[in-house]
Amino acid sequence: MNLIIDKLKEYPVAVISALVFIGCAVVVFMRGDLVAELSLRETELIAQIRTVNDNVIDSRNLEQDVESLQGYVAAIDERLFNRNERSININFFYSFEDKLDIIIADVSQLTIEEPALIKGGPNELSLYSGIVYEIRVGGTFQEILSFMYEIQQVDALMRIANFEVQAATAQRAAPEALLAKLHVVVLAEKD
Amino acid sequence: MSKQRDIQPYWRPDFKIQSTLPDIKVVRTDFIINAIAVALALIAAFTVLQREYRAFSLNRAIASMQQSIGETEANNNQNLQASERFRESAQSVVELQDFFRAPFAAHELLAELARLKPAGLIFSRVMLSSAIIKQKGKDSAEAQMTYEINITGDTRGLMALTQFKATLQASSSLSPGGFEVVVDESMQQRNAKTGITPFRVSISLTPAPSSTPNKGGEG
After folding, report:
1. CB of A163 within 8 Å of any CB in chain B?
2. Rounded to an integer, what distance in angstroms lies between the CA atom of residue A115 and that of residue B132?
3. N or C terminus of chain A: which is more exposed, having fewer CB within 10 Å?
4. Given CA atoms B159, B163, B166, B168 in this order, what sign does their dihedral have?
5. Which among A147, A24, A187 is positioned nearest to B97, based on CA atoms?
6. How far apart are CA A92 and CA A107, in angstroms?
7. Is the pLDDT of residue B167 over 50?
8. Which residues does chain A have within 8 Å of residue B85's beta carbon, measured at their own beta carbons?
9. B18-41 burial by CB neighbour count: b if 16+ within 10 A, else e?
10. Cα separations (Å) of A12 from A71, A121, B22?
11. Does A40 touch chain B (CB under 8 A)?
12. Across the strands, what pairs with A129?
């Protein structure tokens, strides 16, 4: 103790300076990570502000676009088939007989789904599903082509995935009579 | 600066006792020690002050940014909600595009085949079928659509069949982008009495190797 007092008396400025140095070292040690933490927080906030500003730029006219898109979605939803309304759905296809001069021999709703649209398929649907109908129809080439055209143009959302058109083989069939087997996929509500 | 000195009992210093001798160095030891100590203390103090000032500035900037974010938070949340609604709605439209994705419309294909048919051929059956194949992509096997068009019929002259095959190969309607198209024909035995040869033409559409964007064909 005496030694310290002696040194303090001998080098008072040096001792005080040493105490200041030690004090500063302690402060740096205790608060050393503070600046790094604050810098990190500042970087995060700058990124957040940039994101907010980008959102403002990206959101120009977004409400109008959303309303427009929701209008399209509502139009899609109105046209969806319901898988459980089998009679209504099948009758929809038979109604083409009234519009076109064509004989629809059979319409059946298949239990299998279009492989392209199910999970893992190349055109997988998550919000909707696809119902497959097998339609057998007889008529001339023009009539069958008209029917296929109408299927594509009708309000409901459907397309012909596969088809087979062949000459009618019945004895009384006209020479130009054809039979067509169509696989029509219809966009439907999700199960 | 005071310095403790030994009490000299004699009238002159004893040069054997070094502590009684005066400091005759050019720069005195006291000065060097004090100068180093003061310099170190100043450096340490400057470092601490600089760091504290930096922390103070950062705190002020952070507070300002937090206030700014707080003021725009409501508007930002509204934008995010609108964006989420947009994304959900857009997904419906994307799925509608996926649903209709095919290299051609069935009625257009049938009409095109009828248009390309030469006079010397008679079609007895036209068939379009599709299948899914798995092609190895970058990460995993990717499902892709393939299409097969089969035409069977009769002909009296094989030149008409050759012409038909060439026409099919040249047709742009039957060569949609992103697909490799292979046209092949086969014939059965010619009927000696009628001179009619049954034939079969198949058109295969398989995804081209670089056609990853259009998984199921073109929209």
Report:
1. yes
2. 8
3. N
4. negative
5. A187
6. 10
7. yes
8. 66, 70
9. eeeeeeeeeeeeeeebbeebbebb
10. 85, 85, 20
11. no
12. A188
Q: What is the ipTM of this complex?
A: 0.77
The region of weakest confidence among A7-21, A40-54, B97-111 is A7-21
CB contact under 8 A, B106 and A159: yes
From residue B64, how far is each of A35, A49, A68, B68, B186 by CA, in Å?
17, 11, 38, 6, 79
Q: Assess contact for A185 and A131: CB atoms under 8 A.
A: yes
Taking CA atoms, A58 is separated from A51, A52, B79, B80, in Å, by 10, 10, 9, 10
Residue A140 in 3-state DSSP? Answer: coil
Cβ contact, residue pair B127, A165, below 8 Å:
yes
- Tell me what the mean pLDDT of segment B204-214 comes to: 72
Helix axes A32-58, B29-99, angle to 10 degrees: 30
Q: Which of residues 57-96 of B touch A (CB under 8 A)?
A: 58-59, 61-62, 65-66, 68-69, 72, 75-76, 79-80, 82-83, 85-86, 89-93, 95-96
Residue B143, pLDDT above cutoff 70: yes
pTM: 0.72
CA angle A110, A115, A118 (to 5 degrees): 100
User: Per residue in A158-189, pLDDT tens?
Assistant: 999 999 999 887 666 676 789 999 999 999 99
Rounded to a whole number, what is the distance in angstroms from the first to the last CA of chain A?
89
Whether chain A has a CB inside 8 Å of the CB on B141: the answer is no
Between CA B153 and CA B196 the distance in angstroms is: 10
Contacts of A71 in chain B (CB under 8 A): none
Q: In chain A, positions 58-87, which contact chain B (CB-CB < 8 Å)?
A: 58-59, 62-63, 65-66, 69-70, 72-73, 76
Q: In what order do the strands lie in the sheet with B197-207?
A: A103-113, A128-139, A178-189, A158-167, B121-136, B141-155, B197-207, B179-187
Q: Nearest by CB to A116, which of B51, B126, B132?
A: B132
Tokens describing residue A51: 């994101």
Task: Please give the structure tokens belonging to residue B142.
Answer: 């990717």
Distance CA A182, CA B110 (A): 12
